[in-house]
C-alpha cells in the first residue's frame, strides 16, 4: 500500500527493538512517505541519530530544550506538521507516559501536543507485556483512539519466549497506510458491518444472573479493525468492563433477547460477525425479589432455551448479510465441532477458537491471545496463535476480500 506524500513522525523508544526502526524508516520511504524521527534518550543507546538521519534524509530530534527548535515551539511544530505519529518500538515506559499524559521529554511532549492519529508498535519483555499495569495502559490508549499493531510472538533478546516482539516493519507500514487512507477509503469503505461481543446476563432475580467469562476483547477488536478498514460498524455489546472502540456505533444490551432485537433492528448489513458468547439458557420465571435463604434448601430453576442469534440471521430469507461469521469456542475436536456448527447454523464461516489451555492466556476467555481456524465450505484455514488485535485485523482483511470477490459472483 502506498502512502506517497504523507508525513510521518517516527518516535523511536529505548528498547532492543529500536534497531528495527531503521528498517521501518526504509519501509515508509519505499511507500513514498517522508519521515522525521524523534529519538528518546534511551533509544540513542541502541541506534544513533546519524543512522536515523541518513535513512530518513531529515534532521533527527532528541532534545526537548533545544534553543533553536524551541524558538518555534519545536515539540508542537513536529507533532502538528505530521500526518501520523508512529511510536516504534513503544516501550512499556512510553506507553505508561502516553496513558497518563506525562510529558517530560521531547517524545512524550510531542505525543501529548498532537492532534493527529497515533499508531504504536509495542515491544518489551513478555512479563512486562503481560503485567496488569501494561494491560491497563493499553486499554486506556485504545479508548483514547490510539491504534495498535503487534506485538508478535517469538524469542526475546533476554532469551524468553512469548508475546512482546515488535511487529515486522512491513506490518507497521501497512497499518500506517490504513490509518492514512483518505476519508471514505479502505477495503471495507461503503460496507456496513455488525459485530456482537461480550457475554449476555440472564437474570435469576434482581441481583443474580447466568453469565460466562467472556471479556468482549475479541469482539471489540474486530469492530475496531473493521472500522479501521473503512466500514460503517455497529457493535452490539453485552456487559463488559472494556471501553467502547472509537469510531464505532455501540448498542449496549444485557440479555440474549435484547441482543437479538438490537441485531435485527440494524439489518440490513453487508457482513455480520457473531463473536458474543450468548447464554444458551435463561430462567423461565426470574424471581421478582432477591431470593433468600430460608432453611428449605437451594432453590430450583426451570430453564428455557434462548434464541439462536447466529442461526436466526444466517437463515433469513430477506435482507440476509452477504457474509455471516460465527464463533465456536471448543476444548476438543475443535474442527469437527466447528464444521458441525457451520452446517447447523447455516452461516458462511465459523471461527473455531481452541480454548483447551494451549498456553498461558491462550484461548482462555478474558485472555489476550487466540488460536483460531476459519472453517467454511471451502475447507479449513489454520492460523497461528496471535494476539486478539492481530486476529481481528486478519479477519477484517479476510472479510474485505470475501466481500469484494462476492460482488462479481
Automatic annotation (TrEMBL):
Binds 1 FMN per subunit. Keywords: Decarboxylase, Flavoprotein, FMN, Ligase, Lyase, Magnesium, Metal-binding, Multifunctional enzyme. The active site is at residue 158. One of its GO terms (cellular component) is phosphopantothenoylcysteine decarboxylase complex. Its cofactor is FMN; Mg(2+). Residues 193-409 are annotated as: Phosphopantothenate--cysteine ligase. Residues 1-192 are annotated as: Phosphopantothenoylcysteine decarboxylase. Residues 7-174 form the Flavoprotein domain. The keyword Flavoprotein applies. GO terms for biological process: coenzyme A biosynthetic process; pantothenate catabolic process. CTP binds at residues 280, 290, 307-310, 327, 341, 345. Gene3D superfamilies: CoaB-like, Flavin prenyltransferase-like. Its EC number is 4.1.1.36, 6.3.2.5. NCBIfam families: coaBC_dfp. Catalyzes two sequential steps in the biosynthesis of coenzyme A. In the first step cysteine is conjugated to 4'-phosphopantothenate to form 4-phosphopantothenoylcysteine. In the second step the latter compound is decarboxylated to form 4'-phosphopantotheine. Catalyzes two steps in the biosynthesis of coenzyme A. In the first step cysteine is conjugated to 4'-phosphopantothenate to form 4-phosphopantothenoylcysteine, in the latter compound is decarboxylated to form 4'-phosphopantotheine. This is Coenzyme A biosynthesis bifunctional protein CoaBC.
Amino acid at each position: 500500500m502506498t502512502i506517497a506524500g504523507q508525513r510521518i513522525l517516527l518516535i523511536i523508544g529505548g528498547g532492543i527493538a529500536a534497531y528495527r526502526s531503521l528498517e521501518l524508516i526504509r519501509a515508509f520511504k519505499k511507500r513514498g512517505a517522508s519521515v522525521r524521527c524523534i529519538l528518546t534518550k534511551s533509544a540513542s543507546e541502541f541506534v544513533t541519530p546519524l543512522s536515523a538521519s541518513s535513512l530518513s534524509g531529515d534532521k533527527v530530534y532528541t532534545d526537548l530544550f533545544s534553543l533553536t527548535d524551541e524558538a518555534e515551539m519545536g515539540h508542537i511544530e513536529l507533532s502538528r506538521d505530521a500526518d501520523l505519529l508512529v511510536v516504534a518500538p513503544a516501550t512499556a515506559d512510553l506507553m505508561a507516559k502516553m496513558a497518563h499524559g506525562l510529558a517530560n521529554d521531547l517524545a512524550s511532549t510531542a505525543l501529548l501536543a498532537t492532534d493527529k492519529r497515533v499508531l504504536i508498535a509495542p515491544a518489551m519483555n513478555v512479563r512486562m507485556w503481560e503485567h496488569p499495569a501494561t494491560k491497563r495502559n493499553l486499554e486506556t490508549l485504545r479508548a483514547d483512539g490510539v491504534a495498535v499493531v503487534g506485538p508478535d510472538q517469538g524469542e526475546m533478546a533476554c532469551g524468553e519466549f512469548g508475546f512482546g516482539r515488535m511487529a515486522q516493519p512491513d506490518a507497521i507500514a501497512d497499518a500506517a497506510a490504513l490509518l492514512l487512507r483518505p476519508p471514505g477509503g479502505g477495503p471495507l469503505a461503503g460496507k456496513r458491518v455488525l459485530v456482537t461481543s461480550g457475554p449476555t446476563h440472564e437474570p435469576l432475580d434482581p441481583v443474580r444472573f447466568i453469565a460466562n467469562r467472556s471479556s468482549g476483547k475479541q469482539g471489540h477488536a474486530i469492530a475496531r479493525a473493521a472500522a479501521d478498514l473503512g466500514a460503517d460498524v455497529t457493535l452490539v455489546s453485552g456487559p463488559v468492563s472494556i471501553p467502547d472502540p472509537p469510531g464505532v456505533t455501540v448498542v449496549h444490551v444485557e440479555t440474549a433477547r435484547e441482543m437479538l432485537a438490537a441485531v435485527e433492528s440494524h439489518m440490513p448489513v453487508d457482513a455480520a460477525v457473531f463473536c458474543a458468547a450468548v447464554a444458551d439458557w435463561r430462567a423461565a420465571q426470574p424471581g421478582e425479589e432477591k431470593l433468600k435463604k430460608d432453611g428449605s434448601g437451594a432453590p430450583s430453576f426451570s430453564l428455557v432455551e434462548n434464541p439462536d442469534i447466529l442461526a436466526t440471521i444466517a437463515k433469513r430469507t430477506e435482507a440476509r448479510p452477504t457474509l455471516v461469521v460465527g464463533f465456536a469456542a471448543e476444548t476438543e475436536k475443535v474442527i469437527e465441532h466447528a464444521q458441525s456448527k457451520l452446517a447447523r447454523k447455516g452461516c458462511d464461516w465459523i471461527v473455531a477458537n481452541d480454548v483447551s489451555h494451549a498456553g498461558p492466556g491462550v484461548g482462555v476467555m478474558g485472555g489476550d491471545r487466540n488460536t483460531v481456524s476459519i472453517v467454511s465450505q471451502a475447507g479449513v484455514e489454520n492460523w497461528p496463535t496471535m494476539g486478539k488485535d492481530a486476529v481481528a485485523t486478519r479477519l477484517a482483511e479476510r472479510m474485505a476480500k470475501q466481500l469484494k470477490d462476492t460482488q462479481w459472483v
